[in-house]
Write a structure and sequence with these properties.
The protein is mostly beta strands and 709 residues long. Helix content is 6%, strand content 49%. The strands form 13 sheets. The chain has a 29-stranded mixed sheet that branches. It has a twelve-stranded parallel sheet with strand order 9-12-15-17-19-21-24-27-30-33-36-39. Residues 598-707 form the Copper amine oxidase-like N-terminal domain. Residues 538-547 have a biased composition (Gly residues).
Length: 709
């Protein structure tokens, strides 16, 4: 055995040479020095292992082990000459205190077996970044990790006919590189069980022969796969097989390239989650079970989500024996025969708002026992509350239909047609819902979860219209906005210079509410704002953009209504001027009642005042209003006109016409004079009253009109 040192510091002593063995004594080593021992046979190898000063054992020649070798310290085993150690039926055992690194070109071989593998880690630590460990026996096992031991594999080769790497008993293997392969029929590249854990982020794991498995997860075992390549190359081979264990796959490539192979196999009550990576079974179809993912037996469950890609020359996903597959996210699943095939069990497919499984189907789509559930997955739904929406499930075979979940039916007000493939929804409330549909063929079930986003119903909009209210010139402002209920409206100014003879503009009115330009209010429906006018003392035309409120305090409707009430009885069949009664200071009239009050005296009309429904103007008998205000009334039968005179004021009204002459000037009014049985002429109250110099007040609660002159 030769021992060499980096930076050898010979303090004092001697060197004794015994054959090929060199011993260095009485020397002091620097703290960072590494001692390497080159060995040529079993004795030197075991001696170096027992020498705590040796850091690296360089195997410089081939030799056999005749006994097990236990390592209980930190040491690296390597070879710069590609030498080999043949352990035969024995093992290199790394116990609790052992920490061994395999590197370089070292080769460790032997028959290997389940109880006597080539390397056994029993509580210690093994690192492999080079070299090769090969079990050549017909039932060979190469590396076993148990007793809480740990293996970190970043390079090198591990090969066996039956088990290349076995992890159990709270052992852990972290695989980021290297090659691990099973070369025998039924062989397994990596097996994890009974409390073992395997984390695979890289490397190449292979099962080369018939029925082999790249990774095998058994009861109590856990495997997390985030990368690497896992390949089953033989007929009926399986990339990753879970028989009662738990596996999580988020990355990497998993393949079965032989006939009838399976990318991932799930059974014996296993739970497997696939959220990424590429899984395929692309060998020539053999039998009926060639599948990207195959799941069987009660309590077995697989979740396929995220960005997983699954493909097969036969079935993308095969579900049988009362097992369950849950599919969601942006997965891609394709099968030459079927994307998803459910014989006995349940496939549950959830469609997200922005992600939808992309499932490419073969001849018969989503199928169970030669009948298609459907050929195309529906998309997420967005609709408006209170509106009706139909969704059609495409490609449903005759005799196959879906049923609605009762909760879905109530929430979305959903109904299925008689064939069970068209859903009609008309939800009342906005919100986020799930449409749940189930179809059954024999013992196979397909469940669809389709998200439904219900948007609020479109809110009604309202308008503001401006009305001139007997204006004689100018135009009303136009508000082109559409308002929703609760919006704030700002009242416009008299931008079109509305004018009315004998009046000044005083703002706007809605019912009994007065507004000045610039005022605001909350809108709850369509509204018309009528111009408000105040009589001027000169009787001339006022208007323009003024924004003062009327001194009478009347709202626009009140003014319009009192205008119409103030006209007097019509004179029919006489050409003589009628006698007038003395003018009164105050007149009070109530809509729909014949009683009137002249100052404090109560009288009765033989025809009651009323409001014209089209113009919203109050009409009264022309004789009553004219004579009460001290004017004279004359009926002109040839022209069917009424002439009212009072001092220098002359009003000429024509039955059925909205044109009125006031002192020779044409004025348009909004409702025409008319004759009402038994022969009374009715005229607009406010117009006649204000032209004759009176003011009008209206009480909307009592419907009482007061005329003062």
């Amino acid at each position: 055995m030769k021992i060499s040192k980096k930076i050898l510091m010979l303090m004092a002593g001697m060197i004794v040479v015994l054959g090929m063995m060199c011993f260095v004594g009485s020397t002091a080593l620097a703290a960072d020095e590494t001692v390497t021992a080159s060995v040529y046979d079993e004795a030197e190898f075991t001696s170096a292992i027992g020498n705590p000063t040796v850091d690296i054992i360089n195997v410089a020649g081939d030799f056999d082990l005749t006994n097990n070798v236990t390592i209980d310290r930190k040491v690296e085993i390597t070879s710069t000459t590609a030498s080999a150690i043949n352990v035969d039926n024995h093992s290199i055992i790394i116990d609790n205190d052992g920490n061994v690194t395999i590197s370089g070109d070292i080769k460790v071989t032997g028959r290997g077996g389940q109880t006597s593998p080539i390397v056994k880690v029993d509580g210690g630590t093994l690192k492999i970044n080079g070299g090769a460990i090969e079990a050549t026996g017909p039932a060979g096992w190469s590396v076993v990790i148990e007793g809480g031991g740990t293996a970190t594999i970043s390079g090198g080769i591990i090969e066996a006919r039956i088990r290349a790497l076995d992890v159990s008993g709270s052992g852990t293997a972290n695989i980021s590189g290297g090659v691990i392969e099973a070369i025998g029929s039924g062989g397994i590249g990596v097996q994890v069980q009974d409390g073992g854990t395997v984390n695979i982020s890289g490397g190449n794991i292979k099962a080369k022969e018939l029925t082999g498995a790249g990774v095998d997860v058994r009861s109590g075992g856990t495997a997390e796969i985030t990368g690497g390549n896992i390949i089953a190359m033989g007929m009926n081979g399986i990339g990753v097989r879970s028989l009662g264990g738990t596996a999580t796959i988020s990355g990497g490539v998993i393949e079965s390239t032989g006939s009838g192979g399976q990318g991932v196999h799930v059974s014996n009550g296993s739970t497997v989650s696939i959220s990424g990576g590429t899984i395929s079974a692309m060998g020539v179809a053999f039998g009926t079970f060639g599948s990207g993912v195959y799941i069987r037996e009660s309590n077995s469950r697989i979740e396929i989500s995220g960005t997983a890609q699954i493909s097969s020359n036969d079935y993308g996903v095969y579900v049988t024996e009362n097992s369950r597959a849950e599919i969601s996210g942006n997965v891609q699943i394709s099968g030459t025969r079927n994307g998803v095939y459910v014989v006995n069990g349940t496939a549950s497919i959830t469609i997200a708002s922005s992600l939808r499984p992309d499932i490419t189907n073969g001849v018969n789509g989503f199928e169970s026992i030669d009948k298609a559930f459907l050929t195309t997955l529906p998309e997420a739904i967005s609709m408006v509350a209170t509106e009706s929406y139909d969704i059609t499930i495409e490609g449903v075979d005759p005799g196959v239909g879906f049923v609605l979940d009762p909760g879905t039916s109530d929430e979305l007000n959903a109904q299925l047609n008689n064939d069970g493939n068209v859903v009609t929804m008309s939800p009342e409330a906005d919100g986020s819902y799930n449409l749940l549909l189930t179809s059954q063929i024999g013992n196979g079930n397909l469940q669809l979860t389709i998200p439904v986003t219900v948007l609020p119903a479109a809110l009604p909009t309202y308008t503001v219209t401006y009305h001139g209210n007997n204006n004689t010139s100018g135009t009303v402002p136009v508000d082109s906005s559409s308002y929703t209920s609760g919006s704030t409206v700002t009242v416009m100014d008299n931008t079109g210079n509305l004018t009315r003879i004998g009046h000044s503009f005083a703002g706007w009115r809605d019912g009994s509410t007065n507004y000045a330009p610039g005022d605001s209010f909350t809108i709850t429906g369509d509204i018309t704002l009528n111009a408000r006018w105040t009589a001027t003392s000169s009787g001339g035309g006022g208007g323009g953009g003024g924004s003062s409120r009327p001194t009478s305090g009347d709202s626009q409707e009140e003014q319009e209504e009192t205008e119409e009430i103030e006209e007097t009885e019509e004179i029919v069949g006489t050409e003589e001027t009628q006698e007038t009664s003395p003018p009164k200071k105050k007149i009070r009239i109530t809509i729909g009642k014949p009683d009137i009050t002249l100052d404090d005296e109560t009288q009765q009309l033989d025809a009651m005042p009323f409001i014209d429904s089209e113009s919203n103007r109050t009409l009264v008998p022309v004789r009553f209003i004219s004579q009460t205000l001290g004017a004279e009334v004359k009926w002109l039968p040839e022209t069917r006109q009424v002439l009212i005179t009072e001092g220098d004021t002359e009003i000429l009204l024509t039955i059925g016409s909205k044109e009125v002459l006031v002192n020779g000037e044409i004025i348009l009014i909004e409702t025409e004079p008319r004759i009402i049985p038994p022969g009374r002429t009715f005229v607009p109250l406010r117009f006649v009253s204000e032209v004759l110099g009176a003011t009008v007040e209206y009480d909307s609660e009592t419907r009482e009109i007061t005329i003062i002159r």
